Amino acid sequence: MTPPASLNDEDIANFPPVPEDLEYSSRNSIYQPPIKVQSPKPRLFALIIGINLYENVNPLRGAVADARAVRNYLEAQLDVPEERIHMLLNQSASRSSILAAFARLRDDPYIDKGDPILIYYAGHGSEAIFEPENGHTKTLVPQDYSNDPVKTIYPIPYSTIGTLLTQIAAAKGNNITVIFDCCHSSPGKQCQNTTGTLVRSVDSTLTSLMDRDMDGDVLMGTQSYQKKGGTSDNLHAYILISACSPSEKARENQGRGAFSTALLKLLRTVPPNELRYSELLSRMDQIPGQNPSCEGAHQNRALFDGKVFFEERICHTINSTAENGRFFLGSGAIHGITKGSEFSLYESADNLSEPPLGHIKVEILKPSYAIMQPSDLIDLRPTTTSVIAVQVKAGEREDVRFYCPGDEEYLVCHEAFISVTGNPSNIGWNIAMVETPDDAHIKIEMQNSRVIFFIKDPAITQYGITRLFYDTALVVEEIAPVIKSAEHYFFALNHSVHNPAIVNDIQLEIYKLQRPFMLPAGPNLYQDNIFDLVVEEGDVPYGMKLTNNSSFDLYPNLFYFDNSDLSIVSYYQPQSVGGDYNSVVPLGKNGGTLTIGYGSSRALPLSYYLRDGQNFDIGFLKIFLSIRPADLSTLPQPTPFERSRPFDKRPILNLWGTILIPAIQRRYPRESLNHAACTHCGHTVDPGLDLGYLQIENGDLRCELDIHRKMASREIQNLEKGYQDILAELERRKAELAGLTDISRQQPGRRKNSRKVIQATRGPEDGSSPALADPQHSPRARLSLRMSLSERVKRLLRSKA
């Protein structure tokens, strides 16, 4: 079948009627419920490292939890066997253990060439200096790191890691994925900022000068060993995914890493075989202050080279008879299908390991069905009446994901969802329902016959906001506007363009303004990429100053995103100039400045308030940067909880960079940086009484105990095996001696020679040491060793009990 041309309105009108409700129509064989087929167990091997408790540097809280979450993802969703996952947590993640674990992957005989390998690290990173060249290098910080001159344990430089990865690739192939959730550079003196957020980095002033030859046994003879202070950049050997750019900080909040949380949220919703490395970062939710990176020569591959699937694959049965060159898929947006999704066709669910018959992709998406267009020739037998469609490529990223229970009392909520996604005027909107609350941006719940909207996006919940401030009645007319506004809100909030050449050269300052002349007063309130203020009585004004140190003239747009009511407010948009007149550049290059809310700017001052009954709020200031005027006049939107005019969504074009700034508004001040303050009332608590932290630490210690028990169990097994080997060797020697004795009895003339052989076996009496007479190999010595091993086994068994 040749791919047809694009559909027009007349073509669509000729399609047979399609059910619009949530249930599949029993009158049409096209719409059969999808079936789940068990995927084969993947041959994926993983090394997972997580370190919270360091011997000599500040502890973390979320690295071990992230490592466990990665393991849970591999076991629960990808069905990776436990024995193929090697975990190093806290004390078990020493420098020598980490290097040995890399070497173990390289030498493991059970890993075939081309098998997927995942290496994940969560913990501290830093920069160090090689002597004598003083070249800087990125490093991972092992649990036993120490700069004590008496017992120096160095960080692990990327040159060593890169060389080991190159060795693994040479032995096992280049299907290697490396994920580092740590900083690349030093954070300065503090590992914790003013909001209590931990940073995964060690101050470079703590790291000693490193000897470039310290890992010579690993690097000797390799090309990377010739480099001075650099990394082994053989990115043909592996894909490297990092939590942030070199100048940024990898943060953790609420006991989890911000990057790992966002990454796993994506991986739980999109099967790895449908996701390419090049799409990974653009599909993740935006992380304030962090711009992850992906490096490698094979970024166009599917994750793990397309060899790993979810534990169960969804198979859709479709009618093989095409209408106007199109196929109907009996699943739509409400089932998680998105625009641009691609599917492979198979004769049956039993033939998924064979080459596909062809491919189709979503052309028109409806709530409960999709119209599919062939993307290549499809080889169907004349007798084939139905085929199986399996998704092989994820479609466009959902702008917002909702979770709504399937209970009957939530039927009105689903009707509201369909009214938005099925409305022809909303073509271009991308909303999806997901199966679990943790994968959603918003969770819908019913309480006292009211619809409550809980926020599940970690970028927001990490600051203490867990729900929208308002709720609605259980009617479609009130729920649908919230769904529509949420789609536009998260689309604009997560639309990001990271351009370090511009963004890193923008200096931001935010000040309280003093009336009546609106002049900056007090300190810069923008610290650690966060704007934190105490809301005062009255309309207190604030102003922002931007300094452009880049070599580009810029046109900034500034908006405020209110997480309490989903409104978007414009704080600053450049002046528009009509006709052929040149527009005025608001933020000139090479040191140009722009003030918003004071000075020569016509923009009004920034102002904030807390609603009655609200002691804490979190919003986002977002700056959109472009090198030419960009019309973002359609970006603002009113809150959906008030009657207002409708709005239209337009694409955001011509952007060169975005900056997202959390704006924290408190009714009460944080009293001390040494105490954790309640995000809602400002009450301070001694961190020593932090029950959550103690629970996490208790869990870490329990996990450590389990690790040591497993290590002791393996050592006991090895000792028992050695014990049995010695017994077998003793029996063999006894048999040899018995045989020699029999020969000497049968041949008296050879007794003299037999005695020499026996004496050589037992060992000489005069103290000489021929090869066969080594005292360490004599039966008496072996018996002594056997008794020693037996005692060690007994002691280990007693300690294990």
From TrEMBL:
Residue ranges, annotated region (Disordered): 1-20, 740-785
Pfam families xrefs: Peptidase_C14 (PF00656)
The organism's place on the tree of life at top rank: Eukaryota
GO biological process: apoptotic process; proteolysis
Coiled-coil portions: 709-736
Family: Belongs to the peptidase C14B family.
Name by which UniProt lists this protein: Peptidase C14 caspase domain-containing protein
